[in-house]
Amino acid sequence: MKVSVIGTGYVGLVSGAVFAELGHDALCVDNDERKVKMLEQGHMPIYEPGLEELVAKNRAAKRLRFATTIQEAMEHGDVVFICVGTPPLPSGAPDLSYVDAVSRDIAKHLTKYRVIVEKSTVPVQTGEKVKLTISKYAKAGSEFDVVSNPEFLREGSAVADAFNPDRIVIGAETQRAKDMMLNLYDKFRDKCVVVDIKSSELIKHASNSFLALKISFINAVANICELSGADVTQVARGMGLDQRIGPQFLYAGLGYGGSCFPKDVDAFVDISAKLGYDFHLLREVQRINHVQLEKFLKKIEQELWMLRDKKIAVWGLAFKPNTDDVRESPAIKICAALRDAGAKVRAFDPKGQENAKSVLAGIEFSPDMWHALEGADLLAICTEWDEFRKADFARIKKLMAHPTIVDGRNIWDPVEMKKMGFAYRSVGR
Ligand SMILES: NC(=O)c1ccc[n+]([C@@H]2O[C@H](COP(=O)([O-])OP(=O)(O)OC[C@H]3O[C@@H](n4cnc5c(N)ncnc54)[C@H](O)[C@@H]3O)[C@@H](O)[C@H]2O)c1
User: Fold this and answer.
1) Domain ranges of the chain
2) Top-level CATH class of 2-195?
């Protein structure tokens, strides 16, 4: 099938490459000409394991191309995906102006039947607005259907996830649109869940909010562990073995971050309020998440007393391992808070360094993890990259001025750390 993707970011680029790999003829469009030029020259604008190879393979097979205009997207694709950003506004509501702008542009170039798919994460009832907008701006009698097909990829394993989905949610109203979507996802037909558009939109917000709730829940339990002397990793293990609970997202730490969870929880709270429901439970999830960062900073302060002029090494800037994405990363907020308190921060991240440089001034970026440690009074661990887990403890100790570690991701064993002579604090243990 011919597929167009509008918005070639994390979601759009992965989706386009995956559709191409599934044998479809994919065109990825972005109005960022620099990004499109990079992709046409074979360079990746983002880091995502396996993506570069997938893009190269499908470009070579001529199943994946790039362009800069929505006109080209509309001429090419029978199915046209909207994958533009829906960033948060200060009110907590998502900014849907990119979705609106694309919908109007789609309408302008709608000359034959197209299935328009909202893949961007949007609040319930947005599908109705997209449909109205296209109807209003398109030529009278233009034929189209709007479909909701939320994206569940996880950055860091997006490509692998795409070929092994738990489910593919399709919200559609007409048989014609349903059939086209099922053909598109033919390889995963048994994973397709076909529902109405509003339910599909809600599935996305409810799923992400539920996962955020799990994270805040275990962080709340971590607090009880710290107060009572229990170990949250043992508690989480014991809980997670219950199949009704499951082990995933039961890791106590710095709380959730990234471009999705904070924004999607905020957006779900916002749309719920607009619809007349106070989602108090989720507001508590947000509060716990916020407090978790403050508690981490307090531990650093307790170790160092005054932060001014103290040398602090920070390992990890990306919001999680295996991605270069630093949007809403707890690590960025921690670096900024330490910097504002007068500390001399030296940070390192294996992939997120360049993105961090564009949002974080007044700290030093180290060329490698060891450089960051030289003469440090304290090491703060903010992202659980594998190379940090496997670090050589003797080398850490030799490089630091004082072997003090505050670990926001529980990557090491407190008993072992103590035996090796580190002052080591983690979360809920
Ligand atoms: N990143 C994730 O892990 C993830 C997972 C699931 C869902 N989502 C959702 O998917 C959507 C996209 O997220 P993302 O992380 O890929 O965002 P992104 O910022 O990486 O990409 C969005 C892209 O859209 C482009 N764009 C904006 N307006 C355009 C226009 N008029 N024409 C063409 N291109 C345009 C931008 O230049 C950018 O490249 C969001 O709603 C997000 O919540 C993201």
Assistant:
1) 2-195, 286-425
2) alpha beta
pLDDT (0 to 100) of residue 338? 98
pLDDT in tens, 102-118: 999 999 999 999 999 99
Going by alpha carbons, the residue nearest to atom 19 of ligand 1 is 85
For residue 377, the model assigns a pLDDT of 98
Asked if 2-195 and 286-425 have one fold, the answer is: yes
Percent of the chain with pLDDT over 70: 100
Please write the tens of the pLDDT for every residue from 190-238: 999 999 999 999 999 999 999 999 999 999 999 999 999 999 999 999 9
Distance CA 339, CA 52 (A): 35
**The two three-digit tokens of residue 3, written as one number:** 């597929």
Tell me whether residue 260 is one of the annotated catalytic residues: yes
For residue 274, report the distance from its CA to the centre of ligand 1, in Å.
Answer: 24
Mean pLDDT of 237-241: 98
**What CATH number has the domain spanning 286-425?**
3.40.50.720
**Amino acid type, 418:** K
Residue nearest to atom 7 of ligand 1 (CA): 151
What is the 12 CA–ligand 1 centroid distance (Å)? 7
- What confidence score (pLDDT) does residue 68 get? 98
